[in-house]
Specification:
alpha/beta; 18% strand; 6 strands; 4-stranded parallel beta sheet; 146 residues; Ribosomal Protein L13p, Chain: A
Length: 146
């Protein structure tokens, strides 16, 4: 007596995507980034399939008000290498937060996504804005609390 169990594998066309708004005001950077990465991958959806894009679109507002714990404000450093001799650049967290606060959240979330074509596709669904305004009102996004 054999019972066949079938597992439904969802494709990206089978998923009804939502637009979600996350307010980063006063949130810890790492904890916020893990939740956002989980939403982008679709791990909160019952249709989650690891090899397919089943996640939602995420809009992050108030990126300049994100917090870090301890002394990371002065000691955390972002490294970039251009590929040329002497092309290493080091940027402090405090400086990057002042110049381009969106990059802080984008960098943290990108590091938590898969390092392949799927991860690159998921990253395009992340929209980060320094202030409280965003141009995605037409999509009627839902505000969620993290």
């Amino acid at each position: 007596m054999s019972v066949e169990a079938s597992t439904k594998s969802f494709a990206k066309e089978d998923v009804d995507r939502k637009w979600l708004v996350v307010d980063a005001d006063g949130k810890t950077l790492g904890r916020l980034a893990t939740k956002i990465a989980s939403l982008l991958r679709g791990k909160t959806n019952p249709q989650f399939t690891p090899h397919s894009d089943t996640g939602d679109f995420v809009i992050v507002v108030n990126a300049e008000k994100v917090k870090v714990t301890g002394s990371k404000m002065d000691t955390k450093v972002y490294f970039h290498y251009t590929g040329y001799p002497g092309g290493a650049t080091y940027t402090k967290y405090r400086d990057l937060l002042e110049e381009k606060p969106e990059a802080v959240i984008e960098h943290a979330v990108k590091g938590m996504l898969p390092k392949n074509r799927l991860g690159a596709r998921l990253f395009t669904k992340l929209k980060v804005y320094a202030g409280s305004d965003h141009p995605h009102k037409a999509q009627k996004p839902t505000a969620i609390e993290i």
